[in-house]
Amino acid sequence: MAKITLDNLAHSYFPTPKSEDDFALKELNHDWVDGEAYALLGASGCGKSTLLNIISGLLHPSQGRILFDDQDVTHAPTAERNIAQVFQFPVVYDTMTVRDNLAFPLRNRGADASYIASRVQQIGKMIGMEAELDRKARGLTADAKQKISLGRGMVREDVNALLFDEPLTVIDPHMKWELRTQLKSLHHEFGHTMIYVTHDQTEALTFADKVVVMYDGRVVQIGTPQELFERPAHTFVGYFIGSPGMNVFDAQIDGATAQIAGTEVALGAGYTPKGGKLQVGVRPEFIRLTSDGTGVPASVRRVEDVGRHKIVRLDVAGREVSAIAGEDDAVSTDTNGITFDPKGINVYADDWRVAAEGEAA
Question: Which residue numbers delimit the ABC transporter domain (predicted)?
């Protein structure tokens, strides 16, 4: 286990980058706490795998340092970093049995035979392959091979960090849930530092203690699932986390009120944003429908019944806005406006969240 420090870290795939836009990974300065489970979450191409490969030593950064427990490992090869990495597609030894695949990292380090046998049995049970331990890996399905890769990554208890690069891509949906649960259980039991790359918010939010949201090569927020939901630090976080994501309205802000689509809206707190593009973000859960002419003018485009609730798609000044209504709530055809629950309002300047006056940092 190790604390991982990213010190002035950045990377460009161009030999002589000329501007910030040439960097796939823009400058990062973060300490990732020893023993916590992190998910790197973002859309494809945002820099997640680049960062993971720098941490593992598969890629050398253009600038900055990587430290494990304050020891500089920037130039250390992967083998010396004492990490385990599981990739998106399975990497197994086809000529070996499942048991020998799982045992390989331990035998390679001279572990005691009785410990190897016990640990392999434990991991075999964890990945649901106890019955296949003596089968050759050749001929197994892709998801079975990926379970072997996961097991081989988890079999060592002495690693500095466990790194997972979208490891459940080829796993069937039911097994995905089980393996995520097992990974979380393993983390609670052994306290490994874990970093899990994914573009799937469900995977990230159910696996991690802290979610690291990346956008355009930059970390835009690190927080718990609750923090990401309630106080998105960037409009991208609000959009990407949640289904549907946060609604964003262009606005003029004056203290505790905003003008949205020509209507005055109470913000529930005072704000003093300093210029830039001003917006108000409200999640669908905090939007209420009106039919008495109050609120921001809106009309219903369609209603999607998803079983647990209804998603109401509305037109507000030519833009689609989403609201959530209860499964048993009737959506009136007379709906002509929306109001906002003040506790669900966030204010943004140039896409970054603005703290309300008096709000604790």
Answer: 4-241
Name the token pair of 339. 């109001």
Instruction: For 12-43, write each residue's pLDDT tens digit.
Output: 999 999 999 999 999 999 998 888 889 999 99
What is the predicted pLDDT for the residue at 361? 59
Closest CA to 12 of 77, 58, 57, 59: 59
Phi, psi of 222 (to 5 degrees): -120, 125
Please tell me the pTM assigned to this model. Answer: 0.85
β-partners of residue 266 are 257
DSSP for 188-226 reads HHH---EEEEES-HHHHHHH-SEEEEEETTEEEEEE-HH
Domains in the chain, please, with CATH?
4-240 (3.40.50.300), 247-354 (2.40.50.140)
Long-range residue pairs from 354-357, CB within 8 A, at least 24 positions apart, any chain = 354/271, 354/272, 354/273, 356/267, 356/269, 356/270, 356/271, 357/269, 357/270, 357/271, 357/272
**Is there a cis peptide before residue 244, judged by omega within 30 degrees of 0?**
yes
Structure tokens belonging to residue 239: 């959009």
**pLDDT at res. 271:** 94
